[in-house]
Amino acid sequence: MNTEVRISELWTTNDPELLVPGSLEALHGDADDLEVRADTLLEAATDIGRHVVASWVGDAADGWAG
Fold this sequence. Notes:
Helices cover 56% and strands 0% of the residues. It has 66 residues and is an all-alpha fold. The longest helix has 26 residues, at 24-49. 0% of the residues are buried.
């Protein structure tokens, strides 16, 4: 079984799948996954920004509170 990846030179083909190795479907899947994760992190960051810790005092607490 030959598992060698063949990458063509630009002048040897017009086939983009030979010029750029990988799967377009996998790339789109990864992009969709990253978008979901980014949305989750944004929601978490927004949520944590609403929390107030009454016992937290000092410059850092003042900076957090804005």
